[in-house]
Design a protein that fits this description.
Layout: E1 2-13, H1 16-22, H2 24-44, E2 48-51, E3 56-61, H3 64-83, E4 93-105, E5 108-110, H4 112-123, E6 129-132, H5 133-138, E7 148-153, E8 162-167, H6 172-205, H7 210-237, H8 248-290, H9 296-305, H10 312-326, H11 343-362, H12 376-389, H13 400-407, E9 422-425, E10 428-431, E11 439-440, E12 446-447, H14 488-496
Parallel strand pairs: 4-6
Antiparallel strand pairs: 1-3, 1-4, 2-3, 4-5, 6-8, 7-8, 9-10, 11-12
Length: 501
């Protein structure tokens, strides 16, 4: 599970569901035209879109400054596009930006940072941008756009108040008034709770009558209501506008906005259910591809991808059964000649290694000699098999699971390996040919042969005058000792037939 800090931009079209109910083609054309502007601006600001359902766009940015600048530029470009259009053909967006810690999984981002960005987007006015306090602190003094504080707000399914800044500045007054209303409701709730606790304490300890307690509660409620005009006066003193008078048009507009928010919420729920169904279908398809295998590595890959899947328990039992049959754990790699193995284990590994080398040779991955010795050539052959078969498996595992996996492939998997003097053509190694006037070097490159100079003809070597040839030594006759011939000893030896003179 990967975590990282990113800036999240959430944009949503205003009134898109109502427009789709009236004219689907016109709504789709308008949304497509504005999505081109939004997507191109996000890409220019180094953003990445990771979520898009209906009329909403969710993107991530490495910087809060770039995310906020992108949001402001999008609203400016969309405002220029809507200037020349009638009121009923304009499509405006709300944008929310948040900076926080998220979880990255399969290209998607999840977590509290994404949820807060979606809730802030719901607070943003039509054509405006709302940002959180973290984003406001990071962009302070770095953008020309003026963001105004719009108070703290209680957001749906968020257990803490979120402080919000708004752009353009004239839209922040409505958000501030809603934040003040929330604070008033919270203060009134605290007063009522305190009154209830005080009444309970008095009843339990002093036994006073109930009418006096009821009068105490009424007095505290009147005191709480008396605080409201004071808050209004304080708000007016700070230069904020008062609450507008209720009129039928405003009430109708608020009702339509509430209905629109309900429809958008339903659309998001349907989208989430559809995404969940797609993930379930992908999990079932992946399980069907590995359930018939006896290789624990393939079954473990299902658990790694879907740790909380519907077949997780079954996959765990199948992995244990496969490991118990083989009598070894795939995490411990045994190779021939391991000193931890006995003589029988080494002999069994040698037989298994020869079978695996033969299987690799059958699929075209040449392991060198089939001698039962797992050397570097055999490891390279297994690595090439995993590479060209596109399998995620140990590169140096000598096991029955690896042997069974290699034997499943029929025909050549690894391409032919040609020498430097040959080239691969139509699946065969063909000898290279050099053009006329060139020869092939040892490295397999055609080069121009060097010119050879003819050797100078040498005459007979003259002998030196002061070095005459040595006379040949006269050969000694057999049986004749050095120093003389015809002696009595020689005659005697000749008579007995041992040494003729």
């Amino acid at each position: 599970m990967e975590r990282r800090l990113v800036a999240i931009l959430d944009a949503d079209a205003v009134g898109y569901s109502r427009w789709m109910g009236v004219d689907e083609e016109a709504a789709f054309a308008a949304l497509s035209e504005r999505r081109e502007i939004i997507d191109s601006t996000i890409v220019e600001r180094c953003g990445r879109i990771f979520g898009s359902a209906g009329d909403s766009v969710v993107a991530e940015f490495p910087s809060s400054v770039e995310a906020t600048r992108c949001a402001v530029e999008i609203q400016i470009e969309l405002g220029k596009l809507n200037e020349d259009l009638p009121e009923d053909e304009r499509m405006v967006f709300r944008i929310g930006v948040n900076f926080g810690d998220v979880i990255a999984e399969n290209g998607d981002l999840l977590g509290d940072g994404v949820n807060v960005a979606a809730r802030i987007e719901g607070l943003a006015p039509a054509g405006g941008v709302c940002i959180s306090r973290q984003v406001a602190e990071q962009i302070s003094g770095k953008l020309q756009a003026a963001f105004v504080r719009a108070g703290s707000h209680r957001l749906k399914n968020i257990d803490r108040p979120i402080e919000v800044w708004c752009w353009p500045p004239e839209c922040a007054g409505v958000l501030r008034r809603s934040a003040v209303s929330w604070r008033r409701a919270a203060a009134l709730g605290v007063l009522v709770a305190a009154a209830a606790l005080g009444a309970a304490y008095v009843v339990f300890n002093t036994g006073k009558d109930m009418p006096s307690l009821i009068g105490l509660g009424i007095a505290m409620k009147e005191a709480a209501n008396a605080r409201l005009p004071v808050d209004e006066e304080r708000q007016a003193a700070q230069g904020e506008r008062g609450r507008p008078e209720a009129d039928p048009a405003a009430a109708d507009k608020g009702r339509r906005r509430t209905e629109e928010q309900k429809r958008l919420e339903e659309l998001r729920k349907v989208t989430a259910m559809q995404e969940k169904a797609n993930n379930l279908a992908a999990e079932i398809a992946y399980w069907n591809s590995v359930k018939d295998s006896t290789n624990p590595t393939l079954l473990q890959s299902y658990l790694d991808r879907f740790p909380a899947g519907i077949y997780a328990t079954l996959a765990g039992h199948m992995i244990e059964q496969a490991r118990s049959r083989t009598g070894q754990d795939l995490k411990t790699v045994r190779v021939p000649g391991d000193p931890a193995d006995g003589a029988a284990a080494r002999q069994g590994n040698a037989v298994l290694t020869r079978k695996l080398q033969s299987a690799l040779y059958d699929v075209g991955c040449r392991p060198g000699h089939i001698d039962g010795k797992w050397g570097w050539q055999s490891r390279k052959a297994l690595e090439n098999f995993a590479k060209f078969a596109k399998l995620d498996m140990p590169r140096d595992a000598v096991s029955y699971e690896t042997l069974e996996l290699v034997r499943r492939y029929k025909g050549r998997v690894c391409p032919p390996q040609c020498s430097v003097r040959h080239t691969l053509r139509n699946g065969r190694c063909v000898a290279k040919k050099c053009p006329k006037g060139r020869v092939m070097a040892v490295s397999g490159v055609c080069v121009v042969p060097p010119k050879r100079t003819p050797k100078a003809q040498r005459g007979p070597i003259p002998r030196k005058a002061h070095n005459p040839p040595k006379p040949r030594r006269k050969a000694r006759r057999r049986g004749v000792p050095f120093g003389g011939t015809g002696t009595q000893d020689c005659d005697f030896l000749a008579d007995v037939g041992q040494a003729p003179c």
